[in-house]
Amino acid sequence: MSTAEAPPRPGGVAPVAGGTVRHGVVRPWLRMLRSELGLIFRRWRNLLLLAVLIGIPVLLGIALRVSVPRGGNGGGDGLGAAFLFQVAGNGVFLAFLALTVMLTLVLPLVVAVVSGDSLAGEASAGTLRYLLAVPAGRSRLLSVKYAAIVLFSLISCLLVAASALIMGVALFPVGPVTLLSGTTVPLSEGLLRLLLVVLYVSAAMAMLGAIGLAISSFTEHPIAAIAAILIIAVASEVADNVPQFAVVQPYLPTHWWLSFDSLLRTPIDTTELTHGLLSIGVYIVIFCSIAWAKFSNADVTS
To answer: How far, in Å, CA of 268 to CA of 196, rounded?
Structure first.
């Protein structure tokens, strides 16, 4: 037999030069991911939500520029009040304030819409069974869906931060950043800390996306899935502010969302950040496992 052209091996995988077998796993996965991202970003509903994410920091910056005088002190109670007075002295803090304000409802709403629609929307439209007809496997399809949710969450948070940063530069003084602990750091370090905050908030939204993916695997009605995700997020935030629930508060999904304020202090409280990231990671693992267990054994008829 000539060695120039060998027959395909069992399973349909042909050998290539050098005897290396090309499994063809990464490229098909990336093609599916690009297709999924294209579908997400072509929907007018999602584009409108992204526009809202960009517009709210603009309105927030204008409102603060009109109402808050320059050179505000660091007084006030709570994280939001601290950010409010810091904005007047440095426009970079508008990005931190925007993320804090929008983390309570707007960002969860955006992530809930995309994650709740991920599987339930396909089932409702009757396209899920056609996706499964492609020899990609349910696990691969589920991983692509979740990866798209994570990337959408990251892009959403980046858009909020970028929009707020642009407005902060346009409306307020910008220079060395005075942190919540009173320490002043160079502008470059302040922007680095802003990037770390964006990544932390994105991780929190990825956790909510995992919850949404799991809920979406149980229903064929995307509106019901979206509503359930929002109810969980709002109920967790409410319970986190009720003293009677102090025992369970550290285990609530939203409890550690605002722990990114540790990045705005010197020294950085790595213990609180570690607890937050650990909580986020545990929730992601649990709910992605639930989604996989349900979806891998589901009888898809639509």
So the answer is: 12
Q: Cβ distance 61 to 168 under 8 Å? A: yes
Question: Rounded distance, CA 53 to CA 44, Å?
Answer: 14
Return the minimum-mean-pLDDT range out of 64-68, 164-168, 210-214, 275-279.
64-68
Using one digit for the tens of pLDDT, what is the confidence trace for 123-178?
Answer: 888 777 767 666 567 888 899 999 999 999 999 999 999 999 999 999 888 889 88
Structure tokens at 118: 């991920």
**For strand 184-185 and strand 177-178, is the pairing parallel, antiparallel, or unpaired?**
antiparallel
Residue 254 to residues 54, 125, 287, Cα–Cα distance (Å): 23, 32, 15
201 Cβ contact list (under 8 Å, min separation 6): 99, 103, 107, 157, 257, 260
Reported as a single tens digit per residue, the pLDDT across 230-259 is 999 999 999 999 999 999 999 999 999 999
Which helix (H) or strand (E) element contains residue 185?
strand 184-185
Q: What is the dihedral of CA 107, 108, 114, 117, to 10 degrees?
A: -160
